[in-house]
Amino acid sequence: MPRRIRMRVGALLVLIALMMGLFTIRIYKLQSAMTEEAIQEANSIYYYTTVPAARGQILDRNGTVLVTNRASYNLALIGYALFNGPTPNESLLELVRTCQELGIEIEHHLPVSETRPYQYTLDDLGEPWTTYFRWFLDKRSIDSDVNAGTFMNNLRRSYNLPEDLSDEEAYLLTAIRYELALRDKDMPLDNYVLAQDVTAAQLAAVMELSIPGLVVETSTVREYNTKYAAHLLGQTGQMDADEYQNLYKDQGYAMNAIVGKEGVELAFEQYLHGQDGRMKTLMTSTGEVLDQEYVTTPVPGGNVELSIDLNLQIVAEDALAEKILYLRENGVNEQGDGSDAKGGAVVVMDVNAGEVLASASYPTYDLSTYRQNYNMLAADETYKPLINRVLNAQYPPGSIYKMVTAITAMEFANVSRYFQVLDEGAYTKYQEEGYAPACHIFRSKGYTHGLENMMDALRDSCNYYFYEVGLKCSIDDMDYVAAKLGLGEPTGVELIEYAGQRANRATKFSVWAGTNQAGWVTGDMLQAAIGQSLNQFTPLQMGVYVSTLANEGVRYRTTFLRRVVSWDFQELLLESQPEIADTLELSDETKAMLYEGMTAAAGINGTANKFADYPIKVAAKTGTAQHGDLSESDNASLVCYAPADDPQIAIAIYVENGAQGGQLADIAMKIMDTYFSQAGKYETVYGENEVR
After folding, report:
1. Do 105 and 153 lie in a common domain?
2. Which of 51, 344, 452, 585 is 20 to 30 A (C-alpha) from 595?
3. What is the pLDDT of residues 528-539, one digit of tens each?
4. How many domains, the chain?
5. CA distances from 195 to 147, 261, 429 (A)
6. Domain of 198?
7. What is the band of 241 on the pLDDT scale with cuts at 50, 70, 90?
8. Is residue 690 in some structural domain?
9. How would you class 169 by CB atoms within 10 Å of its CB: exposed for 0-12, middle for 13-18, buried for 19 or more?
């Protein structure tokens, strides 16, 4: 080879070596400049998660925490990491089997029944998840008319699920794969939460599997610090489709948000819920979390302070339960009346503010085990423990209604409180028409009350007197008085309540529409005057009624709320103020009649004579109400307030099949003992640095 050629080849080789060296140096510099973190990030993804805000606490009026939160753990799956793993289906099968062994419930929205023959369950899911299902079909060019069995078989094949799986395992794997498929970049869905509120032991066992993409998300769940007030406090749960579409979608709630379902949890949802946050997470293809940061920080919900006094609530519930159980065991007489007592309610109110101090319903249940025991509770048709009797049971009031008749007679029919009637036992004015009602004492003991004025008649609860006086009244005037006093009227309370009904022309026409009995007749008036006929009221309305009597005709809007404060107790968000809902003007004579009659009823000769030796003067009225089943004991009712000369507390008690209202005074006195013994009883106790 000529020398010149050799020189050129050598130069070319040197140039190539120099270029390779330069490239090597460049690559080395690039690798040196690229941190390990940057290399990992290049093989990672960011995903975003909604971080639920902790619900606010629920407290009683004295600052005692009734409902709070505890930390909980959820299991979530990230498809990006799972499907970058070597064997996704095998990993999922191992996860499913472990969850089954540990009793972990796997959550999903696959709109197909769990067992064969497969059926679509879209109606159970609601519009959002139905929309996602349609998107899923369209994305895979699946005919929207495909039947559920074919759909499941197609998914099983497309996901390459093993043939030897049980039907349950195949269904769960299909459901998980379906959920992960919905987490497409075009879909506005958070991570797939496989299971919620997993215990520490369950969590440890599952995470030992080292499933790629299986992560732990922290959350909170409700914790109950009291077994009392279950009907009042209510429950939380995941919203259903209707709630999401009609209530919470426009408020920015996530579709899997936990919301109030009943009671206080539902009534004050807007304050308790808080504002959810948003978390940004960096994850490698192997499932390692590299970084997390809040895009928006969650803000806990506000704390709701109720008007309820837990001490009074405990006394009311225990005393009511004790009385009903005693009646079941002993009855009230040798005939066993009252031994079929089923349930009851107690309402305690602050006369001067319309605040409910206690709201007791029996039978009750434990909120902490509500979900586990729900089927058993719901199946109890005899005692119906799930019913909030205070708000959602409607009863004939019986003789506690007689103050309505007395007021109507004096204010609208010019009847004097000294007007006298001779009780002759059976009221025979309409005997020829086949109707001769009688005083209870005449039916049960065979004697009469003799000559009675209006105060005497309240003291003795004389039906005969109120038959005669009732006929002097107009039903329209009586209906007006009853409404003004809060009977059959919405109380204004924040929780869902039944409205009740008054015995009047409109109610009679509505109940008997289309029959020849739709018109108002004299017999209706006789029964209405003693609290029977079509009168049906809730125990809460009865509490409002006696509170209004204590206020001499001033009725306050009823409330369970004192105030709402921020999660850290630093800011006052809402404060309840007494609000007059209605007023019934009463003459001094009528006021005197009510005071004398009701205090006499609580005296030594009255039907509520258990109050006679009570150290604080009480005004009261008892009731014994007939109801639909005459083979059962009568219902029992009692209303009272104290002190009679300066009313502070009003109480209404009702017991189904309780037989006699007078013996319910035992419950009222225990409540009064607690109320009057508490020093500075209803001043809210504030902690240091808390809003005042």
Report:
1. yes
2. 344
3. 999 999 999 999
4. 4
5. 29, 21, 72
6. 86-211
7. confident
8. no
9. middle
SS3 358: strand
Residues 192 and 131 in one domain: yes
Q: Which of 258, 224, 222, 253 is nearest to 239 (CA)?
A: 258
Q: Are residues 525 and 554 in the same domain?
A: no
* Cβ atoms of residues 296 and 265 within 8 Å: no
Q: Tell whether 692 is covered by a domain.
A: no
Run of H or E residues at 65: strand 65-77
Contacts of 61 (CB under 8 A, 6+ apart): 305, 306, 307, 308, 309, 355, 357, 562, 682, 684
Give this prediction's pTM: 0.87
474 and 425 in a single domain? The answer is yes
Report phi then psi at 279, rounded to 5: -110, 135
Q: Whole-angstrom Cα distance, residue 545 to residue 532?
A: 16
Backbone φ and ψ of 216, nearest 5°: -105, 130
Distance CA 649, CA 643 (A): 8
Please tell me whether residues 474 and 580 are part of one structural domain: no
Per-residue confidence (pLDDT) for residue 681, from 0 to 100: 53
- Both tokens of 482, joined, read 């009853």
Q: In percent, how much of the chain has pLDDT > 90?
A: 77
Please give the structure tokens belonging to residue 619. Answer: 């005004």
Backbone angles phi, psi at 360, to 5 degrees: -110, 135
> Tens of pLDDT along 4-54?
555 555 555 555 555 555 555 554 554 544 455 554 555 788 888 888 899
In a domain, 24, yes or no: no
Does some domain include residue 350?
A: yes
Quick one: 302 and 336 in the same domain? no
Closest-CA residue to 196 (of 281, 276, 108) = 108
Whether residues 545 and 674 share a domain: the answer is yes
**Cα–Cα distance, 284 to 289 (Å, whole number):** 7
